[in-house]
Amino acid sequence: MADQETVLITGATGLLGRNITNHFLSKNFKVIGAKRSTSITFNHPDLSWIELDKLLEFDPKDFKIDFVIHCAGLVSYNASDKDELFKVNKDITESIAKWARSARVKKFVYISSIATLGKNSDSQIINENTPWDDSDFTTNYALSKRAGEKAVQENGAKGVNYIILNPSIILGPAELSQSSAKLFQYVLDQKPFFTKGFINYIDVRDISNVIFKLLESNIVKEQFVINSGYTTYKSFFKQLAEKLNCKAPFIAVPNFSLILGAHLENLWSKFKNKEPLLSSETARIAGNKYIYDSIKIKNELDIEFHTLEESINYSIAEMKKAGYIKL
């Protein structure tokens, strides 16, 4: 690649966006980070910042942008957030894709989710081609991200060289109130319960590396599942607990109990005027036993991903350095 190409990264202060930003800075890119007005930024000579809302007001011809990586999005499984989910994950994604098309970027990478993939499989294994069935259980989050994918593909038909990535749960360092770091907090709080479902996971460093390699390649208008592996929640929490020197969750909760607990949680939260920690959607997701297959991206780029142990060790070490975890 030519020296000092420029990449615009939305959501650049989040767990994934920050890691991608640092990865591309290390590869001699100029980075423009698009963020919310309240987000806390960091400094680098080749890094500049812009508020996402203001970005869309500017003429894209005023910017020299080679690539756009759209990480920004909203994750929520509360029914009351449906309108906001579609506004952020569909409408804003569509606006950024149109903006990128006007800017004539070389490639547009959209970070979607495994939640958008079809479940109509004869086995537990899900990939990019698994058929979608409207009778599948789908969350508002999944539907909004799927609508975002469709908006990107429609702009692809008009000239945008897009790539859609569907990562599983992203493991990496973050504040304990953010993203997958909440799972670390759950174990640190020594909660006793675990579900019988599977957790599919991917190291944040692997996603950054995949994106970099895809931008180097001739691959366009493709979709890839990004998943390192899977395990049971029981095993996942046990490994976390061993590294965090605390007691692992030890009481298995059947799915029907989770759903009942979600309804009670919502009633209690309404009474207390607080945000519910558990919803009927998250309760059902926790019981899933799907396995997501990344063979397509592994074959395309000839890569392997970090193991779960490596991801956990890295996340904990970095969160200790940042002061997020104090043991």
Write the topology of this structure.
Blueprint: E1 6-10, H1 15-26, E2 30-35, E3 47-51, H2 52-55, E4 67-70, H3 82-102, E5 107-111, E6 125-126, H4 140-156, E7 162-167, E8 169-171, H5 181-188, E9 193-195, E10 198-203, H6 204-216, E11 222-226, E12 229-232, H7 233-244, E13 251-253, H8 255-272, H9 280-286, E14 291-292, H10 295-301, H11 308-321
Parallel strand pairs: 1-2, 1-4, 2-3, 4-5, 5-7, 6-14, 7-11, 8-10, 9-13
Antiparallel strand pairs: 10-12
Helix pairs in contact: 1-6, 3-4, 5-7, 7-11, 8-9
Task: Describe this structure as you would to a colleague.
- Helices cover 41% and strands 18% of the residues.
- The protein is of the alpha/beta class.
- It has a domain at 6-170 and 201-228 and 291-305: NAD(P)-binding Rossmann-like Domain (Rossmann fold).
- The protein starts with 5 loop residues before the first strand and ends in a 6-residue tail after the last helix.
- 40% of the residues are buried.
Instruction: Please report the number of helical segments.
Output: 11
Shape category: globular
**Poorly predicted ranges:** 275-281
CATH level-3 fold name of the domain at 6-170 and 201-228 and 291-305: Rossmann fold
Rounded to the nearest angstrom, the radius of gyration is 20 Å
Helix amount: 40-55%
